[in-house]
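Below is how a single chain appears once it has passed through the pipeline. First comes the sequence as given, then the structure the pipeline wrote out for it. We keep one example in the README because the format questions we get most often are answered faster by looking than by reading.
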Amino acid sequence: MALRDFWQDRPTPLVWAWEATAWGLRLLKPLFQKLGMERSSKIVKAPEEIVKKVLFNCQDCAQCVLHYSGMTCPMNCPKNLRNGPCGGVRLNGHCEVKPEMMCVWVQAVERSKKTPYAHEILRLNPPVDWRLKGQASWVTYSLGADQIPTGTDTTIRYATEVLPGEAK
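Resulting structure:
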């Protein structure tokens, strides 16, 4: 979709919109806590879906990482990869599974350079908790349910911590 690519390739207004939304969600947290995730999601889901489906082709995972991935939804990757491209990215930057499609992660890396979150492209995101599918990501974000780490390590990690020759 041309409109979607236009805005994602020029992410500054999207970043501003996300920052305003995040601010509003922090204010709504007590209300969401009182109502609970499911009831809150029913209220917030429709406007969130309209905005995110049009602008990002949101796949409704309820654990949005747009601001970590150059305002590009990694769930549009046919393999649902959330931490970078697979080994099958073609030389022209297209997807190995859908050759007519640009690799989501090639786009994310390029777009992230145009945001204040460029360093977050190296963030290691936890796997999707599919139990949250269908909930509003604005609610899961506000309640802190969107970034549930695996195992007992709750520290946010970055790829630079495990790359050879990088400072740890």
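The CA atoms of residues 8 and 32 lie 29 Å apart.

See the next section for the split statistics.
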